[in-house]
Amino acid sequence: MVQIEGLGRLLAEHPFFRDMPDDVREIVVGCCANAHYRPGEFLFKEGGPADHFYLIRQGEVAVEVHAPGRSEGVVVENIGEGEIIGWSWLVPPYRWTFDARAADQVRAITIDAACLRRKIEGNHELGYELYKRFIPVMGRRISESRLRIVELTTEPGE
Amino acid sequence: MDGVFLNPDPAAVDPMVPRPFRIERRLREVDGCFTLHLKAVDGRPLPYKPGQFNMLYVFGVGEVAISISGDCRDLNTLVHTVREVGTVTRAMAKLKPGDCIGVRGPFGNPWPVEEAYGNDILFVTGTIGLAPLRPLVYEVLNRRDRFGKVVLCYGSRGTHDILYEPLLHQWRGRFDMQVHVTVHSAHAGYRGRVGSVANLVKIARFDPEQTTAYVCRSETMTRPAVQALHDRGVTSDRIYVTLERNMKCGVGFCGHCQMGGSFMCKDGPVYRYADIERIFTVREL
């Protein structure tokens, strides 16, 4: 019970959930757990089941692409404190499309996706509140990725 | 190559006549990029202000507009960092210490410095955009006590093409300057940031109400940089940007660099964003 209360407070403090109605956020708390990752530890790997998503409370997570012939992956983005990582749990077939690895000590709240999907099926308001928060994040990241393509093709240049 | 036949009258100030400068040093920077340290053959210095550019003439090949990237307080040496992108710059890359090139300038509207007194300073740049901005960074640091926080946000493609990397480390080591660097991709285990420059603007610590921002990026990337500044609350009248067009004469005669009623070679390349906001996104202008 004490842990649930603590998670509820952590969830309410995280920017992603901060303005969610209390009664809706409380539904999510039951699917949450605290997690800690050491530097270099994987949160998830490409192709694996997207059964969680993560609210980063502290530290940085490197989003990586595994490249054949290279012993190490290529980091394409860092995701830090106050952000979320993982939206593949929303979209069938629920598989990760990148690797995510702790770049330093990472403290996060993990949210059980299967648990959440079940709850969303029975509570569409919860689904609406979550999608309202996920879609802007996804849109911003797509937009940033597009701009980085532009950046790579226009800078440096004549 | 000897260019002493050019401009034989040392008192001549015709802006269309190049003065011969000798290459004292040639530094290899990141891949495809080099820095020339030049000295006037006639010994006369070429005073300039941060943000100005020169027309550099490779004899027998052609002339190209290149921003000055040294410390404007050092009147003995003229510094240009150049990227090999065209016929002239590729020919310039082959020159060696002792060779001469022609220099016309300085031209253009400089970065304003005094207007930012009392404010926090934010530099936003990427790849070779740091070169035209470096004289301004030097100048701000030379007058460090006139400003609040000084923040540099810089982005490059990867970990191997960070321009002036030792200098960035040196600046980062100062206690009175924040230096944020990001790259587009990196090897696993890289301890720095990976992502866009706009994201650096989001995390940088400055007072948006009292910040003057200097943005030196390609025009396409200036837009998201300005948007990130607006999102933080920095208004257009405190944002300065650079524009680039095909500059030829450098003095507003030929019209090659005209945008609306403005000639970038003499009215720019530095503009207050509020002054050009209306035409900045006009296509084909």
Automatic annotation (TrEMBL), chain B:
SUPFAM superfamilies: Ferredoxin reductase-like, C-terminal NADP-linked domain, Riboflavin synthase domain-like
CDD domains associated with the record: sulfite_reductase_like
Domain FAD-binding FR-type, residue spans: 16-113
Pfam family, one: NAD_binding_1
UniProt-listed PANTHER family: ANAEROBIC SULFITE REDUCTASE SUBUNIT B, DIHYDROOROTATE DEHYDROGENASE B (NAD(+)), ELECTRON TRANSFER SUBUNIT
Protein name as catalogued: FAD/NAD(P)-binding protein
Organism expressing this protein natively: Azospirillum oleiclasticum
Lineage: Bacteria, Pseudomonadati, Pseudomonadota, Alphaproteobacteria, Rhodospirillales
